[in-house]
């Protein structure tokens, strides 16, 4: 049983490490894409009315609207998978995991939007916040529950194949032996 916990811990630790590294890399790319100054002759005013920017893009045609919607949906979508992966929990309740991921993703998106207020050429857009959160929610729902179930099945299969009895003791190594200490007369 202890060996099984150790193996589960090693798998979770490896996944957590990979998740943290991939999360840091993704956030660095997102920061570079969203927080770099733009050299533009004209800047649209900040959009703080939900769906107003999307309606304006739809008025221009389906092409610009689709480009913007897809861009905003996919920008933070990997966080829907990377945040739970960085958490490293294989047995988290699905609704709690979804809620925690959505709140963390929304806060990251809000932070990016607020940081953009100080960057030349960038403006705050509440539609980006909504679409970013929707994108990471969809990614989480599409990947995380099935991925966790597959990992749990894989670990259960490994546990079922684990050696029993003497073979298990041989796999763990010999028991430690301590020399006898003489008792004083």
TrEMBL record:
Taxonomic superkingdom: Bacteria
Pfam families: VanZ
Keyword NAD: no
Keywords linked to the UniProt accession: Membrane, Transmembrane, Transmembrane helix
Positions of the UniProt region annotated as Disordered: 161-185
Residue ranges with Pro residues bias: 176-185
Membrane-spanning segments: 12-35, 129-151
Occurrences of domain VanZ-like (ranges): 25-142
Name this polypeptide is given: VanZ family protein
